[in-house]
Amino acid sequence: MTTPTPIGFIDTNSCDLAAFKALIDQTLSKADVPLADDIQKNIPIYDMNRLRPMLQGDARRMLMQEWAQVMMHGAGVIALRAAYPDTAVLDEASLVYNAIIAAEKAASGGGADHFAAAGANDRVWNSLQKLCEHAPEICLRYFANTAIDAVCEAWLGPYYQMTAQVNLVHPGGAAQQAHRDYHLGFQTEETCAHYPAHVHALSPLLTLQGGIAHCDMPLESGPTKLLPYSQAYLPGYAAWRRDDFREVFEARHVQLPLAKGDVVFFNPALFHAAGANKTADIHRMVNLLQVSSAFGRAMETVDRRAMCKLTYPHAVAAQKAGRLSAAELRAAIAAIGEGYAFPTNLDTDPPKGGLAPRSQQAAFAQALEAGVSPQDFAAQLDQMAARQQA
Question: In terms of residue numbers, what domain contains 73?
Answer without folding.
Answer: 16-292
